[in-house]
């Protein structure tokens, strides 16, 4: 996020990378309401008075000492009658607990396996940066003389803008995968790419400096030489279409006219689900000129983002009100976070999660600080040992092996005698439980190899929340969007002529469909796809994890919390009363979620997020936190996935429009057939040369890798088509081929490396190449394949 409070003035240009001003602390909240940290299934929290917010919960409501009532999941008034009791601040969960949970949720360890797209901002000399600045802005330079002060100042601005772009999710010194797919440049590398990156970073910095006003292309030209106008146009178009700039809910942004649609009449998109992913995609698609309809099963928008307004029904406290976020609540990192931009546009104050987090023993005694520090250090050392083990496995085992994170941690704990004393073990168990809380899964279910695969992308800055809850975001994003509520989707059909979405009430027809339902719903199979989804997507759905929920009654949890609180505060002379109202989450039994959020289970990896995100025949698209490899299990991850798929849908619509204009160029036909058993199947047939045949005689082959070069050029910076076989170790049967675009010179680098695991690590870490399905290579991939096939025909 860009600033800590709506009282702060907009920062000056290029200031985003600097230290942010501290947000308003909790006790300075003027409204008296606050949202708190999301809870897992079965957790409970109590609300005390109007100045406190309960820890988020869902589905089973408990009041006082009475039995719990089921929470209706919609914004209905509570049905139970809470026991009258004096309100007390101690009955609500202190946000300092949230701080400790989130502060220790993610750690990046020296031994972690590199993952895709990780980039390090390379240090450059001031003279080198100054030279680039001079070239783009027209500042004269004389050979052999030191840079002038104005050149040095421009160089510093370039570095600052690169950091801002890095925070927004771009590589600091190369094109992103999406930029390559969108073919923002006719050729990768060279002076044009270097200049494009400077232009792109400059435009992103202009937008982030003041997201209340859209950035026009000519605004960037004020400090860029006229000869680079095509680069400005390319960068501005890409950033706008992919919602890196000019997105959100500022009045000036909302007043922008829609772009011309990719074809006439405008293509129609059906969006299943009105959560952050669906709402973000809907808004952006409308801005891109599409016709949109959102189909939602609940009677409200927001999905797993839901703020419950809790009101006391006790006669003694009729005005006691608080807001509790029952699902996603904390904005995990404000630097570069699109929700931070929207919060600033809407004037929402951001409250920083405090770092102070004292721990107490079950009998109410505070934990000895020395013991706390010692056990925390030992816990981190155990994680270091696990990271070292997985690196050894990755280096030494040809096809890799995976086991549970919990098993590895316990093995090292026992081997090194960690936490042998009773109180030390209780403290260690707190850290282990906190790790489970952060991942929404038992440690026994987490992949040792990839449980923290998203750590390198974690957004920096403070963790914050919005007073009054995140439903404020939901209401603002849903405003004016055509949403059909109470429509439970049962079947999605797709083919050459479009898509059909069938609910329990009616059917909807469109050109394309975007499915944003949670992973738990896909796992459950409540929505039938006709034809069936590709095998690799179905297998990725099953490999990724999505939580076992707590079966304990809400009142049992509330009583445990109260028992501990009373042991802590009674010796201090502070009475802990019964709560006026309490709610316990039950996301796992919710038929619209079947769980809280995704995690990397044993046998899964970050690749499965990418596979789940792939479109099917440019008709069926997928978004949601479980499709975002970089930011899974977060609200901003869901929102960004919606923006991503809106851009992908735009590219697909453009491709389809080109094929309509030139039908003889169509290479792919999708036919839907019914076999003798009544099963619907789809056949993909090639009307021209089959790509698999070409890969039987590739230009380069080593291990599970093979490559076809661009036949139109022999430049080392030209793009080649890479194919990687993912074998039985991941899928259990057969081989899955994934594809990527990579520079020709980097093919030789990969060929010189021993072992496919190391090749993959180098490809992800150093080259930023993402492996996807053949249908997801974008315009650049489609163009390259066309050239390869044309050369083969000739």
Automatic annotation (TrEMBL):
Pfam families: Amino_oxidase, SWIRM. The keyword DNA-binding does not apply. Residues 27-43 have a biased composition (Acidic residues). Residues 155-256 form the SWIRM domain. SUPFAM superfamilies: FAD-linked reductases, C-terminal domain (SSF54373), FAD/NAD(P)-binding domain (SSF51905), Homeodomain-like (SSF46689). Residues 99-108 have a biased composition (Basic residues). Residues 8-25 have a biased composition (Pro residues). Probable histone demethylase. The keyword Cell cycle does not apply. It comes from Dichanthelium oligosanthes. It comes from the Eukaryota. InterPro entries: Amino_oxidase, FAD/NAD-bd_sf, Flavin_monoamine_oxidase, Homeodomain-like_sf, SWIRM, WH-like_DNA-bd_sf. Residues 1-150 are annotated as: Disordered. This is Lysine-specific histone demethylase 1-like protein 1. GO terms for molecular function: flavin adenine dinucleotide binding; methyltransferase activity; oxidoreductase activity.
């Amino acid at each position: 996020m860009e600033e800590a409070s709506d009282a702060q003035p907009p920062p000056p240009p290029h200031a985003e990378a600097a230290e942010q001003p501290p947000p308003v602390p909790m006790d300075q909240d003027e409204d008296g309401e606050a949202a708190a940290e999301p809870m897992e299934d079965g957790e409970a929290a109590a609300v005390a008075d109007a100045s406190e917010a309960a820890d988020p919960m869902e589905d089973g409501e408990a009041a006082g000492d009475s039995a719990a009532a089921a929470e209706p999941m919609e914004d209905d008034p509570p049905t139970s009658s809470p026991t009258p009791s004096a309100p007390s601040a101690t009955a609500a969960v202190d946000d300092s607990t949230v701080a400790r949970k989130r502060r220790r949720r993610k750690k990046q360890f020296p031994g972690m396996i590199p993952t895709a797209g990780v980039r390090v901002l390379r240090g450059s000399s001031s003279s080198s940066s100054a030279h680039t600045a001079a070239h783009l802005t027209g500042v004269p330079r004389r050979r052999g003389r030191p840079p002038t002060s104005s050149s040095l100042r421009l160089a510093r601005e370039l570095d600052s803008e690169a950091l801002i772009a890095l925070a927004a999710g771009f590589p600091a010194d190369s094109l992103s995968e999406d930029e390559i797919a969108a073919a923002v440049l006719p050729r990768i590398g060279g002076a044009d790419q270097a200049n494009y990156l400077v232009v792109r970073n400059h435009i992103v910095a202009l937008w982030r400096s003041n997201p209340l006003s859209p950035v026009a292309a000519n605004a960037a030209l004020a400090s860029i030489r006229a000869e680079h106008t095509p680069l400005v146009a390319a960068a501005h178009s890409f950033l706008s279409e992919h919602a890196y700039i000019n997105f959100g809910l500022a009045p000036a942004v909302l007043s922008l006219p829609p772009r011309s649609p990719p074809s006439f009449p405008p293509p129609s998109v059906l969006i299943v689900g009105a959560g952050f992913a669906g709402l973000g995609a809907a808004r952006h698609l409308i801005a891109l000129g599409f016709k949109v309809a959102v189909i939602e099963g609940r009677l409200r928008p927001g999905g797993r983002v839901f703020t419950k307004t809790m009101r006391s029904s006790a006669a003694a406290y009729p005005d006691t009100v608080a807001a509790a976020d029952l699902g996603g609540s904390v904005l995990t990192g404000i630097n570069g976070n699109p929700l931070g931009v929207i919060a600033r546009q809407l004037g929402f104050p951001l409250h920083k999660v405090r770092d102070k987090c004292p721990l107490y023993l079950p009998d109410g005694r505070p934990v000895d600080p020395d013991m706390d520090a010692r056990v925390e250090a030992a816990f981190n050392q155990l994680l270091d040992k696990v990271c070292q083990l997985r690196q050894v496995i990755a280096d030494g085992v040809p096809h890799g092996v995976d086991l549970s994170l919990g098993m590895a941690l316990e093995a090292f704990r026992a081997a090194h005698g960690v936490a042998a004393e009773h109180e030390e073990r209780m403290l260690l168990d707190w850290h282990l439980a906190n790790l489970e809380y952060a991942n929404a899964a038992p440690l026994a279910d987490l992949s040792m190899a990839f449980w923290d695969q998203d750590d390198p992308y974690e957004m920096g800055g403070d963790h914050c929340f919005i007073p009054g809850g995140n439903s404020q975001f939901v209401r603002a994003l849903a405003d004016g969007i055509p949403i059909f509520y109470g429509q439970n989707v049962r079947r999605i059909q797709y083919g050459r002529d479009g898509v059909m979405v069938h609910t329990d009430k009616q059917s909807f027809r469109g050109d394309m469909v975007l499915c944003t339902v949670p992973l738990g719903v896909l796992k459950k199979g409540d929505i039938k796809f006709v034809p069936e989804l590709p095998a690799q997507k179905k297998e990725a759905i099953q490999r990724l994890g999505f939580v076992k929920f707590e079966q304990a009654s809400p009142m049992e949890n509330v009583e445990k919390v109260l028992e501990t609180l009373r042991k802590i505060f009674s010796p201090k002379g502070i009475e802990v009363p019964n709560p006026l109202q309490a709610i316990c989450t039950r996301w796992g039994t919710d038929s619209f979620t079947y769980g809280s959020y995704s995690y990397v289970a044993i046998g899964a990896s970050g690749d499965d997020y990418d596979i789940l995100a792939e479109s099917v025949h440019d008709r069926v698209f997928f978004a949601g936190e479980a499709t975002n490899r970089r930011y899974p299990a977060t609200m901003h991850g869901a929102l960004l996935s919606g923006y991503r798929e809106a851009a992908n849908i735009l590219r697909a619509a453009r491709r389809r429009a080109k094929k309509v204009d030139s039908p003889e160029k169509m290479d792919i036909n999708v036919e839907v057939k019914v076999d003798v058993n009544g099963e619907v199947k789809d056949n993909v047939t090639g009307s021209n040369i089959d790509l698999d045949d070409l890969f039987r005689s590739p230009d380069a082959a080593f291990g599970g890798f093979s490559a076809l070069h661009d036949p139109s050029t022999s430049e080392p910076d030209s793009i080649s088509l890479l194919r990687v076989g993912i074998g039985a170790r991941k899928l259990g049967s057969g081989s899955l081929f994934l594809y990527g675009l990579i520079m020709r010179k980097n093919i030789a680098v990969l060929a010189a490396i021993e072992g496919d695991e190391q090749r993959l690590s180098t490809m992800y870490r150093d080259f930023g190449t993402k492996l996807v399905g053949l249908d997801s290579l974008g315009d650049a991939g489609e163009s390259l394949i066309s050239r390869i096939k044309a050369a083969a025909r000739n």
